[in-house]
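Anyone else keep sequences and structure tokens together like this?

Example one:
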Amino acid sequence: MDLLRNVGLLRSFLIVAREGNVTAAAEKLGISQPALTRNIRRLEEECGITLFDRHTRGVSLTVYGQALLRYAQMIETECRFASSELEALRSGHRGHLRIGGGPFWGGTLLPRALVTLHQRFPAVRTTLDVGVNTIVHPKLFAGELDLVVSASPHDLSTLPDHIGFFPLITIESGIFAREAHPVFAQAPLNINKLSEFQWVLYQADTDAIERLSAFLKSMGMGPPRIAIESSSLMAVVELVRAGDFLACLAAPLFGRFRDIGIRQIPTEREIWSFDAGILYHKAIETTAPFEVLKRTLLDLVTSIGLKAKDRQ
């Protein structure tokens, strides 16, 4: 089969796969449902496989469709980057850069880096999607984001071939509470009672819960009692600032919080640390906006007293 010859049909396939319904996909594409159905059947005939299972409420991908989806998303992303680069050569850098950020990056350094990026390339529109790894990484791999600044995966060898990684720093986690929290009323401070208090969790960060639970267990304590979970980092900060809650967050955030009445609880043992950097589609590696964003983040890391990772 020659997929390149049928690349036009891949867009129909992608939209149907995303919508899970031929009628909804046809409306999104602006074509009739019969025409879209013919496109899908033609692609299936060309490939000699069935891409979708048909149901009364829509369609779902077969194992063949799931395999094709990964490559179709990569082709779509590469075509978009190619269009953006050609447009940049014709009339200066422009286009749409879709960026994801982890909780620390999205709430601190990434917005500042985007200011510099916009100053250098005012015609480049950017969107910022902030979330934990389990939310932003799948979007990156699926082609919904162009790059993500976050904690790196535990095993970089598992990254898809089209995804690169540029290391920035190693980040330690810390436990935070408001300055008037009862934990600070103990003299001397007794961190062995941390599990007695309720916790606030940022998003469904199962990795953070597992790491925090392991730390508390190593100190002879039970797992954290999660009282509130929020998809907003600002809400987590305000809950900690206003109530007797604890939260486990990136320790560099301490410098951002200390002026609003939040303190980091000192611990003799490290809770957990992780490498962080930029995960990106390799197609943007040589573009000027990516290079500026990368260098700006390195400068910002240094400006807040953190040591950038050695890349040698």
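And example two:
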Amino acid sequence: MCELLGMSFNQPVGVNLSFRSFRHRSDKNPHGWGIAYYPDESAQVIKEPMKAKESPLSKFFRDYPRIKSKIFISHVRYASAGENAHKNTHPFQRELFGKDFVFAHNGTLDYFWELPTGHFTPVGETDSEHVFCHILNWLEERRVRKWTEDDFDQLWEKLLAINELGTFNCMFSDGDYLFCYHDKNEYNDLHFVQRKAPFGVVRLKDEDFEINLSHEKDPSQKGFIVATRPLTSEAWKRFQPGEFVVFKDGEIVFSR
């Protein structure tokens, strides 16, 4: 079924706590894992066509606190389109207008090959990468360089139209914004939680582990974590069907 994880914060943070829980989701999604983040204006994408819990590299991300970013996107894959290969593993990465975009999707889309992609040619065979190229082609045609509320509205309409082709949850980013869309027929769910001071004790849902965030976090840190299913004991909220939320610097800047 694939699962998604996204983070948007007002300052660079580590992903290791959330990823610690998220990598357990590979038990039911064994065909690949990946993570994208922004060390600076450029994106770094690490991915493998193997089960995350069996990967020494994913264990490194779980344990290493010095990898920090304001935005993270991660994905564990159950292959529904395309072979189990690196080229078909999420997240995908492309440049547009001098920005690195990264994208991950869960769901299955029919007739996706009919969507125009312009010069953004997919490398792999997945519906996900093709749709990513289609979205970038659409953004290029609209010449979206500086986002406005009308651009967000039009993008929401575009995502709803793509959703007509099947099941569609997605997350993507240009390094400034984190875009999250939930399938209009509620396929596979999507949830979010706000994390800000005062911090308390958090227990992971996927293993017997808890941590007092007040000992780990700077009080000035704030942001949101988005995941297919809640990762912790915190008060997560469910996305509404067809809801599109845009985050920037740890704040919600658009929601429809």
